[in-house]
Here is the input.
Amino acid sequence: MTKPSVFIFEGDNQIPINIQQQVIPIVKLMTHNVQEKVKDKAAGIIFPTQSAYQLIGLYPASIPILLSDKLQDIDSWDCFLTQLYVLQRLENLYLNLTHSEVIQFHSCHKYLIMAYSPVGYKFTGRLVASMQKNADLHVFFNYYKVCLMEIFASIPTRNIQVNALSHMQGYFKRKATKDEKKRLLWLINDYREGHLPISQPLTMMRQLLEQYPDNYLSKQYFFKPYPNCVTVREIPYR
Here is the structure.
């Protein structure tokens, strides 16, 4: 995948060095000096907080937005980067839009959607399940895209993410050893309490998948919603 482009308004390029080091390899940052036609192709926008209400209406509702007062907040970056790459995958889906591709796309994003919104997870699940063979897929896609980008626009609480982790944990209930299940539960609880980044329980699950393979679970984008996500999420814990 190519790096999604993010347009930064003048005066808002105050991204901390430790975050820049992790973000620059996976996002193309564009400043106010770029040509207008290039700026219009930006996949995401970094807005000055004080001007957000005046500027937001100038861009599509589905475009990922990061406000300048959140440039030091890792949870905001995690949400923003997730939106950028979900949007990029949606655009790739549009290029090969079939019923089976929509179902496959949704299937691979199941736990990522659940980790952001259990309500949105149920709604989009019913939406995809109700898709008719003779339906206009372009109309469906546009609505589906709006629904997904709305879901990923808000930072989820830890409890909501723990809910998704707990569902995934169930895949190892009859496979993992007692000690492995105990350690995974400990990592999930420590994440819930704010002592660990979410990458820790997710990393252990990926390790367990090497021992106890599950094709469905291993394809989930919750493990890696965007490149370099592990190091980005661990920045506050270093």
About this structure: The mean pLDDT is 91. The CA atoms of residues 23 and 232 lie 8 Å apart. The radius of gyration is 19 Å. Residues 74-95 form the longest helix (22 residues).
